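User: For my dataset I need records formatted as: sequence, then structure tokens, nothing else. Please produce one.
Assistant:
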Amino acid sequence: MDATLSSPTPLLSVRGISKRYGQRVALQDASFDLWPGEVLAVVGESGSGKSTLLNAVAARSRPDAGSVQFQGRDGSLQDVLGMSEAQQRLLARTDWGFVHQNAADGLRMDVSAGANVGERLMGLGERHYGRLRATATEWLQRVEIDASRIDDAPRAFSGGMRQRLQIARNLVTQPRLVFMDEPTSGLDVSVQARLLDLLRQLKRQMQLAAIVVTHDLAVARLLAHRMVVMQRGRVVESGLTDQVLDDPQHPYTQLLVSSVLQP
């Protein structure tokens, strides 16, 4: 475990999150804690409520009930769902990041790679062109994109490069928590492996905490300290990733694991 996990206070505390769409229950009383420097995987089949939970916790959609508390840099607990929209936007571009499954949803596709990375810094008041460009260049290199591509638009990039650019765009403000919605889905196996290796490296270097939604149990095992398993909007099992995958207790988790192991 990372040293940061010894913090006495959770970085994020989620309690009783529930969400309905008409008569359909999308989330029912979901609760968990996330500690500084920890990665939590949220797994389950399509329609289990994974992305609904992620979007509710990240204040991208409002739940019907529940609370989300985030530990500020000064140690204070912030009521995320009680914030104004302006406060939530500021949190989303400073201490938080959000990596979409489809990189085009998290990038401005018609502006340059450098402008995509620099935009979050400009949102915090940076206006010096030289510093913006230097920081963008540094981050492109950190996510293994050649600095010569800084003036190219994401439309000219491969899927894997777009995803790496989206990661750079999110991490440039040194957030402490990143939400990731199926970050490797739809990529070739070799590209997935390279991206996962990069994510592990950046997480270690930056002491990042992350919540990763994935249907891929191998991704969960590689990235996450702990995991929660969702079925029909409910958390049915949670624990250390290796323990849950090697000795699943809930019948649904057993079914998930066995379906992966079957030839």
